[in-house]
Request: fold
Amino acid sequence: MKRIFGFIKKEAVLCVSGVLAVFSCFIVPPSAEYLGYIDFRTLILLLCLMLVVAGIRQTGAFTVVCEALLKRLRGIKTVGLVLVLLSFFMSMLLTNDVTLVTIVPFTLLMFENITGEKKTRAEIVLLVLETAAANLGSMLTPMGNPQNLYLYSSFGLSIEEFFGIIFPYSALSLVMLISSVFLFLPKLEAPSAGSSAKLQSRVNLIVFAALFAVNMLTILRVLDERILLVIVAAAVLIIDRKLFLQADCSLLLTFVFFFVFVGNLGSLPVLSDGLRRVFEGNEVGLSVLLSQVISNVPAAILLSGISDNVRALIIGTNLGGLGTLIASMASLITYKFYAASKDSAPKKYFWTFTAFNLGYLAVLGTAHFLLS
Reply:
């Protein structure tokens, strides 16, 4: 029983999506039409991106780059600025969660030999800013986070259209993050995290970098996603089949469950049309609010079945990643790493995180109001 409750707590979104999918199956009996609900292109792109980025990360290349950039930096504001900018720009290509899995442990290692209240404040603020940077930077590109990849692929947008929708918010986010580093990080000497990282395999790095390029070509619709799947799967089988275990299967399954639920919802015109009329014109606000409760990825899938206003959905689900700790599931990565570290202050982290995120959400929400 403890294991069951533990699983539900750990995979709450997956469990909710599963319950909704099963419930909808009683209303719309399973049939061959269910296959038409599932966006296989999005699932393939997401799986291949997970595998390729996991392969690159396993070479140690990300940590090597971080250490090389920070080797001669000392002041915490300078170090913080570099780490925040790394989080912001890396997340555009490597996704927000992979960026945080790379940057956060490095940051915690850097603070290991510092003590005192000032250290706690500096560590928490920097981790919060890195997390916000990863979430805000990732919103600029289709491959930056799962909801972008889904909306970009599902609605058949061009890369120019996608950039045009989200660029003003991304630019403003960068200004806010840089300002926050200088305003809120205390003055403190930051010791180097050392130079223990080494590149594990140049050959593997080259291969996975090439696979990443193939991923990009598929996202840009130059290559068919089925060709991508065959190439990536074959490469992983040859190089390191254990990488398959690093794919986030719960996220992929969550997508499938929501596809089924949304597909069944669409099979009931009276219900789907009624919801569409109620939410028409309120997609951004609804996306933000719903993201606070179930996170922005499932919010994007659910609302895409109700509204075809893709511009509002992209803006709403990306801004919706700010706010609560579960608004973006990537934010939980930083929290878990920090809570497990020595001398951590989880409550202080939670309130600092919430204050910064609500502040950023208020600014970007106001920007949306003015732009619209």
Notes: The chain has a mean pLDDT of 85.
